[in-house]
Amino acid sequence: MRLQKDELKSLIKNKLHAAGLSEEHADTTADVLTFADERGIHSHGAMRVEYYAERIAKGGINTKPEYKFEKTGPCTGIFHGDGGSGHVAATLAMDEAIQMAKENGVAIVGVRDISHSGAISYFTNQAAKADVIGFSVCQSDPMVVPFGGAEPYYGTNPIAFAAPGKDGKMISLDMATTVQAWGKILHARSKNESIPDTWAVDKNGEPTTDPFNVNALLPIAGPKGYGLGMMVDVLSGVLLGLPFGNKVSSMYEDLTEYRKLGQLHIVINPAFFTGLMGFKQDISTSMQELNNIKPAPGFSKVFAPGQNMDIVVEEYMKNGIEIVNDIVEYLKSDTIHNNQYDHKGAFAK
Ligand code: NAI
Question: Which residues in the chain are classed under CATH 3.30.1370.60?
């Protein structure tokens, strides 16, 4: 079913507000989720609303958090999330980082004790829109086998990076350090589709094509993706004194408890290096040069990272955002949640 962006955002906002989030927090959270759907990142959009609503309703997301920004040095700080919406905390923390980098050239802000924050390019794009470079990493629950291992240790630990070009354009990379994000498995489940055998393993550690048989995800490029997952865990977990590795709280284990996830934003101000105008010009030039590269067989065009989503945004703006029917029905219903996520474990069916 197709929905216009405003309608989708308002349905999500109303549901999260009905579940207990303040209107303001519901609005920001809905904005982050709509941002994802609008780009075709359906794994981190409206599909997650029922899970959030259940967690909010059961007390596992603080609806009245005392967010606090603690400046720990000229260019560093910690944003205390107090168990509140991760989407809101990460947005506010990025605002602080941007301001600090505008003044000092660079900023590193840790965000601690938050719940899930969604598609993290929302925050790095926030930086690029403010004419600074954004880099962000965050923890997620343990569901990835380390290279050579048969049990999960790290999460899908995503990395996002965005740099501003001219005329509002930007390069924007946003990726899980797994072959696919867990949400993509959920999306395949919601559409009853099989998955490629390179994404995940079953309980015996064998590759599986059945999204309902997934027991752990595979890191990208073997030991290299495993190493990137480690880097994310060190920067957004160990560095902030938070639970790390397989002690990171599970998304589905206990929906009555606040999660204590960590995220780290690094912001760099080009004005303190090569100069803003030259930097933006060069980013735009490199995007153009990439677009001019001769496409390989089977490809129509080379995109700069993130540019592939511009086409999705354009099409959705024209024709509405495609959302799975069941999800739209839920969003339009009076049901807050169907009690289906609590104590289920990440890979529950
Ligand atoms: P993906 O595999 O769909 O895309 C990865 C990157 O590749 C994106 O930057 C995309 O723009 C780029 N890309 C894809 N096709 C391209 C093309 N043809 N040309 C140029 N660039 C191209 O993303 P993935 O790894 O499935 O992650 C999905 C989302 O899941 C992300 O938004 C991520 O932040 C989110 N996530 C969030 C987590 C959390 O705990 N908050 C955990 C894991 C993932």
Answer: 64-274
Q: Are 259 and 138 in contact (CB under 8 A)?
A: no
Q: Out of 25, 116, 265, 337, which one is annotated catalytic?
A: 116
Matching residue, tokens 């206990």: 254
Q: Is the CB of 140 under 6 A from ligand 1?
A: yes
DSSP-derived secondary structure letter, 193? -
Q: What spacing in Å lies between the alpha carbon of 70 and ligand 1's midpoint?
A: 31
Cross-strand bridge partners of residue 171: 163
Q: Which CATH class is domain 64-274?
A: alpha beta
The string of pLDDT tens digits covering residues 251-265 is 888 999 999 999 999
Q: Which two tokens stand for residue 179?
A: 């072959």
Sheet of 159-164: strand order equals 68-73, 76-80, 106-114, 261-268, 133-138, 159-164, 170-175
pLDDT at 348: 61
Active site residue 337: no
More confident residue, 35 or 347: 35
Dist CA 142 CA 251 (whole Å): 9
The sign of the CA dihedral 184, 185, 186, 191 is positive
According to the model, what pLDDT value does residue 349 have? 57
How does pLDDT run across 48-57, given as a tens digit for each residue?
A: 999 999 999 9
pTM to 2 decimal places: 0.96
